[in-house]
């Protein structure tokens, strides 16, 4: 049996579909993000600018966050030393869960090793504990939510993306007596659009469903204290379970859910993904909590991120680059072809020292392959102009068609208020 050949063939088929993934070897420079050292295939190092990081606010290099991690590691050591049940529940982890419950104004919170695990564990466990439950899941939900739905083994209905009329139809066609769980995201990470959260809550109320929202791409970044879209829109108390990550806006690592005590106690007690794994290390928990607490009282990172995102969209759109208009900090640039998308990304790195990972199928539908740009508060105006210059040159070299600038997002639409630099503490 040619075992090795089977694996090689499997990977070859991905190569043929232009879906083979190549990882960039990066060394982020603390204090100088978004700058990083990149090493190419022959290990030659050079400095580049990252334009596709999910460390959305640069909190991964925040000095107080780094100090919290270093100090805690010095005092409590590196690992947690056990599962939550067997000696691993460390003081910084307990404090982190309290900080998260407070962020979302819920009775309790529960931390997992990642956002992926929190979705898989929470959705599957909650659905399994509801007898004969039906799950209603948005068509574009993240892989971790799909995994949770599948793993629950419960009946599911997929509603068209953000389509409340379709969701209503599906709810109305389901036996009123059966328990129902609606799972959706607030900010969808690839198109940067936002769910009709209030309308989904209305439907949940009307049909007696529980609501589960993934706020991974919103926590830290929206709402007066960084509680996400539900906080921004005054809807947190209408959502039963809020899920988030510590790895994106908060710049650390780990995932969580926040909910009432009964739900948290049940997931804590029944989810194998929570029970049979080592607890997060104290230094990481202290770093995450410091980041969360910082963003509860500081709006300057959020304001600056929004400013740089608006400016990036306007400047790229003005150059005839196919920017998708989004109501969020996410700036998708549609290429529409897997080979061209990869080639554009390679050329940006090789010729312009700019790193934007190509996003191809199956992360996005075929024909919508894109460069997903995520401006942070630490991308300067000068960097944005460099990006425009590099993209225009790459678009010309590869003969990717330019478009008529979308009047909704061009620079003429920017008001001076859009471009005012936020002040610290503002
Ligand atoms: C990244 C992501 C997750 C997973 O979070 P991690 O902490 O990275 O595991 C969950 N949901 C969505 C929508 C995501 O984009």
From TrEMBL:
Its cofactor is pyridoxal 5'-phosphate. Homodimer. One of its GO terms (molecular function) is pyridoxal phosphate binding. InterPro entries: 4pyrrol_synth_NH2levulA_synth, Aminotrans_II_pyridoxalP_BS, Aminotransferase_I/II_large, AON_synthase_class-II, PyrdxlP-dep_Trfase, PyrdxlP-dep_Trfase_major, PyrdxlP-dep_Trfase_small. It comes from Devosia geojensis. Its EC number is 2.3.1.37. Pfam families: Aminotran_1_2. Belongs to the class-II pyridoxal-phosphate-dependent aminotransferase family. It catalyses: succinyl-CoA + glycine + H(+) = 5-aminolevulinate + CO2 + CoA. Keywords: Acyltransferase, Heme biosynthesis, Pyridoxal phosphate, Transferase. This is 5-aminolevulinate synthase.
